Amino acid sequence: MTEITDTPVADTETEPDTETPRRTRTGRSGGHSHARRGSGAPKGGLLGWLAGRSGGVRAAIIIGAVVVLLLLVVVGVEVGFSTGRVHPGVSVAGVAVGGMTQQEAAIAIESGIAPLLAEPVAVTASGQEWQVTAAQVGASVDASALASQAYSIGRGDDVLAALGARAGAWFGRERLALAVGADESLMSAFLLDATQAVGTPPVDASVDVSGTSVTLVPPKEGTGIDTGAARTAILTAFGSDQRSVTLDLTTRAAAISEDGARAAYDVARQMVSAPCTLTYDKKKWDVPAATIGGWLAFRPAADPTSSVSTSATVLECYLDSAEVSATVVPLVKEIGKLAKDATFKVSSGKVSIVPSQDGLGLDAEDLATTLLQTLGGTGQRVVALPMKRVEAAMTTEKARTLGITERLSTFTTTYASSNKPRVNNIHLLADALDGTLLAPGQVFSFNETIGQRTAEKGYQEANAIVNGKLVPQLGGGICQIGSTIFNTVFFSGFPVTERHNHSIYISHYPKGRDATVSWGGPDFKFQNDSNTWVLVSTAYTNSSVTVSLYGTDPGYKVTYQTGAFTNMVPYSVREIKDPKLPKGTKIVDEKGTSGRSIIVTRIVKKDGKTIRTDTFKSTYKATEEVVRVGTKIVPSTPATTTP
Predict the structure, then answer these.
(1) Is residue 597 part of a domain?
(2) Which residues make Cβ contacts (< 8 Å) with residue 27, sequence separation at least 6?
(3) 473 and 617 share a domain?
(4) Cβ(314)–Cβ(264) under 8 Å?
(5) Is the distance from CB of 358 to CB of 392 less than 8 angstroms?
(6) Are residue 347 and residue 421 in the same domain, yes or no?
(7) What is the pLDDT of residue 292?
(8) Domain containing 610: what range?
(9) Which of helix, strand or coil describes residue 79?
């Protein structure tokens, strides 16, 4: 194979072998003579001269090209190195993040500023100091946002600006400051507490009314912390090594000036300037000016003359409709009529609705508005009473929607009719319980429903079990009702959420199915877990009380098992010598009862499936029997002889 080589081509014009002699002052030279050329012109004529002159330019161009090439290489290398990463040399609050991805930068920033945020800031105002932690005001830094901001350096749309930023970063000039944010609700709460601790709130101008005397009370300036400046200073301190902040108090002007309260003052004076008359049909009632003064009230309002929507800047006089109603309703009670709620009537296990009745009542709000307009003017001070129909809280229509249609369960217990105070209490308790309505899901509480048993309600003292003994107590007999409603709920299948047995066994209640309650102590509770309302109904005689539940049958089937008495503890007998009784005589003052335990299990089924199994365990204490024993010696009577 023939090898081909490139051979350089020789120039067509060659240089002479010898140098051209230098010219003399006369223009002659030694050796060969040459023709004169133009002064300073290179050989080759004008083209040669131009070629000589362009040599320096070419060198400059070449040097510039090399420099540009080197810059491009450097930029290329730098771009390649920082692709997807923060430009080298960038830092955030002293944390170097150059060369990191945004995620790495965010982690580094989070870690680097943690010591700053961990140290509290000492805040001082008016001699008081608080050590404020970052958690207390919600101080935090968005590390991801700062990392994104750092990544954007040198990546703008302006190429020259981007290159300048990159160059600046190489020399450490791209340093981002730390921006600390706060939870505004926490910061506001702290600043409010601080202001209340060291400042004094301003007092708005007000109007004081006493009878027919009306006084305009001027405002007072207050002092407080400039919350905007305080917020900035505290957050700046969290982002720096300067960990103390001193807050100055500023003057706080009242929102309502004396001029802002003057219109309300003028209205109030006019309102109490004379009495007024209320009328309805042919009836009328005179109201003294001092009474009108008791109706007046004042509130902040926006200035109605201002075209700018601002916060409250004036004081407004108005009539308190509740105060007006409290005065006028008793005054005109003969023209009103109370509304009657719909009620439920039960008879022989059937339930029916007694319809509601609308009432006629005073429209207190309308009256207050009319009185303000009339009494604030200069005309006659006579106002016709506005009346309105008052709908019952429980209307007939609403009662029909409650689902109270049938009896769910009922239970009756008996008692001695001879104990009049106890019978009285049982009847009062039954009346308080009767008509109670339970919403779906609601929990019934015996104590909350009945309330405290007091003499003012008509309760009398009767025997009750206290610490295992029968003692007279106001409201004695309450456990008769408690045990009766417990058994009613027991057979309804509803969940029993609280039940307590008596401390001693009482034989006239079903075994293990008694319930004790007391105000401030044990309670009885159950839940209406059906989808409709439940009505609690009661009925009584002088010797029995019945509690029934009405609603919509949830389909519960109840069975139960009563266990045998266990843990039997015999009662002890204590004898007391009685010198007034003949020797050998014994009288039982307090009958003893044996201690025992018993378990009653209730099984509740629905659609053949067991949905609830309840175990009611009762433990009764033994109580001693107290017997009086006679010690009196009775002399025998001697026999007499009849002559």
Answers:
(1) yes
(2) 36
(3) yes
(4) yes
(5) yes
(6) no
(7) 96
(8) 402-568+593-621
(9) helix
Provide the residue type at 14 as one letter.
T
Same structural domain for residues 519 and 616? yes
Place of tokens 């930068």: 105
Question: What gap in Å lies between CA 87 and CA 176, rounded to an integer?
Answer: 13
Do 392 and 427 fall within a single domain?
no
Query: pLDDT of 568-615, one tens digit each?
Result: 999 999 999 989 889 889 999 888 889 999 999 999 999 999 999 999
Position 130 in a domain? yes
| Residue 476, amino acid | G
Contact 167, 159 (CB under 8 A): no
Q: Are residues 382 and 349 in the same domain?
A: yes
Extract the tokens encoding 578.
């009685």
CB-CB neighbours of 80 under 10 Å: 8
d(CA 468, CA 502): 8
| Tally of structural domains, the chain | 3
With 50 as the cut, is the pLDDT of residue 32 above it?
no
**Residues across the chain:** 643
pTM for this one? 0.57
Residues 470 and 425 in one domain: yes
Give the number of other CB atoms < 10 A from CB of residue 318: 16
Q: Is residue 520 part of a domain?
A: yes
305-331 residue pLDDT tens: 766 555 678 999 999 999 999 999 998
What is the average per-residue pLDDT within 411-430?
Answer: 93
